[in-house]
Amino acid sequence: MKELEGSEVFSELLKTPGVSGYEGPIRDKIKEMIEQHTEDKKTIREDNIGNLIYEMKNKDNKPSVALVAHMDEIGLVVSNIEENGYLRIKKIGGVLDPLLPGRHVTIHTKKGPINGVIGHKPPHLTTDKDKDESVTPWTKTHVDVGARSAEEVKDMGIDVPDSITFNKKVRRLNEYVISGRALDNRIGCYALLELLKRWTSTKDELDVSLSYIWSVQEEIGLRGAKVVANTMDPDYVIALDTYTTSDMPGIEEFYKPIKFGEGPVLRMVDTRAISSPKMVEHFKEVAEDESIPYQYGVTGGTTDGMALQETGCLTLSVGVPVKYSHSTVECADWRDVKNLIELIEKGVQNLPF
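RESULT FIELD:
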């Protein structure tokens, strides 16, 4: 299969760790990539909670647009080190208990990454009592790092509360489908970087000033976006994220099915937000005028757009359809990623209204 344009940069982003509250590595990686496309490094800043912000301001005090994508991912932290050398864990974000057993993981320590596994009880050793508990809860889950004592674990550099990520690798399914852990929301992070690259040389031609925001701690309550809402005052906000599609077996279709390869999704309504009707209509018109495929729907969950919308700005949440969200095998169609970038580029060029 031929290489997908931009997928090499995306793979770098996906493989870089950044559990909510521990976003340092992915923030550094994104900052490094921003610096490849701008000579004005003074406009790159990190706020007190850890959001990474890059501003492209026009001289004429034009309306401001904030583009936001969260850079954190769900994961785990070390919550205790037992005397026998096993680690106990706490979940960070929406990690499902059934996905824990039988996983390779990486513990991120001050000394560097350490390999570990989350084991499971073999069928050879199960009893009738075990069968009553079909899923091992996280409170009874252990990480094995190959140590035989707590002292050995500490000698390896592991301590409470080091972050833990599931091992990540980008795989291709068929021609255009990509699969891996943390597509949510490295897709949005990649899209922002690509838009920055496209607009760097033409920013003075835009009728808006731009703020690119890679936010933190979205997976544990939109915390980074809430700080932005209290410190910035944009006229328009576009939240770039993923969109959990019900287009898979075993899911009741009480939400409109969203299809792979048929374009990014205008997130009309979710659990906590409703996109501004004016923004929805604007981007629908742009998509149709520019022949960019798009979809729209109603879903669960929410995005950083909700936190920023409460400032009174016009807000749109838009995302790439993703199957198996918050698992280690999230899937998306690369054509939808490229069309998301195209839609935002054309839509922002036609603001303000």
